[in-house]
Amino acid sequence: MDTPKVFESEYRFLEILWEREPVNSSELVRLCNERLEWKKSTTYTVIKRLSERGVVKSEQAVVTSLYSREQLMIAQSREFVEKNFGGKLPQFVAAFAKGGKLDKKEIEELKQLINEMEV
Fold this sequence. Notes:
This protein has 119 residues and is mostly helical. 68% of the residues lie in helices and 8% in strands. The chain contains 6 helices and 3 strands; from the N terminus they run αβααββααα. It has helices at residues 8-20, 25-36, 40-52, 69-85, 89-99, 104-118, and strands at 23-24, 56-59, 62-65. Strands 1-3-2 form a 3-stranded antiparallel sheet. Strand 2 (56-59) and strand 3 form a beta hairpin. The chain is elongated. The mean pLDDT is 91.
């Protein structure tokens, strides 16, 4: 199953949901108003759209996510690398590293990830 695309404003909504889920939709309205300055109708529209795309579930006014933060980050990262670097991860890493120096800790973390993938 492909992970559905999530847009920036929807992702900000999901951040709130992940912190509190399962959460009553009226509480989500309050939180979105407080943190995102959204009107009630905006929050309900986002819940509806994400429900239709299978990202969240809303039953009896209780909203839960169907994908974790990690699942969505992985899907969005892969899509970004595919779209901008022809799916070539080394090209992405090279571009990223040239844009801002990696510190020693980040370099070691990347080496460790590569070593773990070789096993």
